[in-house]
């Protein structure tokens, strides 16, 4: 997505870096990195939840058969 916050933060960091600033680009890059890290954490948690639901469904079928 082109209007993503991470992309905008990285664009701001590059623009400010070109203008000679150092504090704002570093803060923007750190924020972008943190957002990406949090997004990856959410993806991992989503996969874990999905795996747990599948395991629960499998146990239910094993215990009670295919009838829901």
Characterization of the model:
This protein is mainly α and 68 residues long. The protein is built from two helices and no strands. The protein has one domain (5-64). The radius of gyration is 21 Å and the shape is rod-shaped. It starts with a helix and ends with a helix. The mean pLDDT is 87.
Topology:
Elements (H helix, E strand, L loop, with lengths): L4 H14 L4 H42 L4
Helix pairs in contact: 1-2
In short:
This protein has 68 residues and is mostly helical. It is built from two helices and no strands.
Low-confidence region ranges: none
Shape: rod-shaped
Count every helix, treating DSSP H or I runs of 4 or more residues as helices.
2
Distance between the termini: 40 Å
User: Tell me about the biggest sheet?
Assistant: none
Q: What's the helical proportion of residues?
A: over 70%
Beta-strand residue percentage = under 5%
> Structural class per helix/strand content?
mainly alpha
Number of domains: 1
Mean pLDDT: 87
Query: What letter string, H or E per element, gives the SSE order?
Result: HH
Radius of gyration: 21 Å
How many individual β-strands? 0
């Amino acid at each position: 997505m082109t209007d993503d916050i991470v992309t905008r933060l990285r664009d701001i960091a590059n623009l400010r870096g070109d203008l000679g600033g150092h504090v704002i680009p570093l803060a923007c890059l750190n924020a972008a990195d943190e957002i990406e890290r949090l997004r990856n954490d959410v993806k991992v948690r989503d996969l874990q939840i999905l795996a747990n639901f599948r395991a629960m469904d499998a146990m239910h079928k094993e215990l009670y058969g295919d009838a829901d």
